[in-house]
């Protein structure tokens, strides 16, 4: 198992830029939770602070939310396309992930790769208030940013807002978590591993990519997922990926013209 080493500080916006008590409280709470320095910002740039403390990243409390700043870009919580996907579901148009997972109200989902959180939001909406979504993120900095956003950012509508609040985030390695989980303890297990070649470049995705777990899924991880899930194990990958065959996914589904697809194991 790879251990994620935290090389980061926590700080706030520069003095005079809405340096509110809420930002100070968020910075202090985050630093205590992660066990990393809470650094007064003053008028220093983030580059100066990272160099002074010898770290690769800075978590910045701004506007009451966290932003992860690295040399490659900034990662902050944003629901992405989840609001449009939820709108489509409300209109009865469906969603490829929801179909692949076979989600209905009341189901229990284990999402082993939280990432930006967009898929987890859609999953949470689909299973409703009687269902649960537990999302894992192996990098503690990414987990802190996305968990804080899910808990405190405002959704575009009530359904999305409620779905965000229902997601439970754990900083955990997927295989370690699965090994400790009880047999048949959830309905479906979902994996969205980091693509070896990105579909698109952006400052946020670049910041995510440099810190995210880039290891390929192992046969043991899939075997543990099959033990823990009652109904399905699903993996998202590029449509042409050899990972489907390597890991035993023979049923491939998704949008006909989409560059991504979902491998589905019925249990």
- CATH A-level architecture of the largest domain: 3-Layer(aba) Sandwich
- H-E string: EHHEEEHHEHEHHEHEHHEHEE
Radius of gyration: 19 Å
Structural class: alpha/beta
How far is the first residue's CA from the last residue's CA? Answer: 27 Å
Q: Indicate how many domains the architecture comprises.
A: 2
- Could you tell me the strand content as a percent range? 15-25%
Q: Percent helix among the residues?
A: 25-40%
Q: Specify the biggest β-sheet.
A: 7 strands, mixed
CATH-defined superfamily of the largest domain: Vaccinia Virus protein VP39
Low-pLDDT runs of 5+ residues are 195-199
Shape: globular
Strand numbers in spatial order across the main sheet? 7-6-5-8-9-11-10
DSSP E strands, number? 11
Assign the CATH topology of the largest domain. Answer: Rossmann fold
Mean pLDDT: 90
CATH class of the largest domain: Alpha Beta
Tally of alpha and pi helices: 11
Describe this structure in words.
- It is a single chain.
- This protein is of the alpha/beta class.
- It has two domains: 8-63, no CATH class; 81-199 and 210-266, Rossmann fold, CATH 3.40.50.150.
- It has helices at residues 21-34, 46-53, 82-90, 96-101, 118-127, 140-152, 158-165, 174-180, 203-211, 219-228, 243-247; strands at 8-12, 57-62, 65-70, 73-76, 108-111, 132-137, 167-171, 186-191, 229-238, 251-253, 260-266.
- The strands form two sheets. A seven-stranded mixed β-sheet has the order 7-6-5-8-9-11-10, sandwiched between helices.
- A hairpin with a 6-residue loop joins β10 and β11 (260-266).
- α3 runs parallel beside α5.
- The longest helix is centred in the first third of the chain and has 14 residues, at 21-34.
- 43% of the residues are buried.
- This is SAM-dependent methyltransferase.
- One of its GO terms (molecular function) is rRNA (guanine-N2-)-methyltransferase activity.
């Amino acid at each position: 198992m790879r251990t994620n080493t935290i090389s980061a500080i926590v700080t706030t916006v520069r003095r005079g830029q809405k340096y509110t008590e809420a930002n100070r409280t968020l910075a202090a709470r985050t630093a205590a939770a992660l066990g990393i320095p809470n650094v007064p910002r003053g008028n220093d740039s983030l580059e100066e602070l990272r160099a002074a403390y010898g770290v690769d990243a800075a978590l910045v409390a701004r506007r009451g939310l966290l932003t992860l700043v690295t040399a490659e870009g900034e990662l902050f919580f944003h629901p992405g396309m989840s609001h449009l996907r939820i709108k489509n579901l409300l209109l009865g148009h469906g969603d490829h992930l929801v179909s692949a997972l076979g989600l209905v109200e009341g189901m229990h989902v284990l999402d082993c790769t939280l990432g930006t959180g967009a898929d987890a939001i859609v999953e949470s909406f689909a299973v409703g208030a009687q269902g649960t979504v537990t999302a894992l993120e192996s990098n503690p900095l990414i987990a802190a940013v996305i968990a804080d956003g899910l808990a405190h950012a405002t959704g575009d509508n009530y359904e999305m807002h409620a779905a965000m609040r229902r997601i439970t985030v754990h900083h955990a390695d997927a295989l370690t978590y699965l090994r400790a989980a009880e047999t048949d303890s959830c309905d479906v297990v979902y994996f969205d591993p980091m693509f070896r070649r990105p579909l698109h470049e952006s400052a946020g995705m670049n910041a995510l990519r440099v810190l995210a777990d880039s290891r390929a899924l192992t046969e043991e991880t899939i075997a543990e997922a099959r033990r823990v899930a009652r109904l399905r194990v699903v993996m998202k990958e590029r449509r042409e990926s050899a990972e489907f065959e390597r890991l035993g996914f023979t049923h491939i589904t998704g949008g006909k013209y989409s560059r991504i697809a979902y491998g589905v194991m019925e249990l």
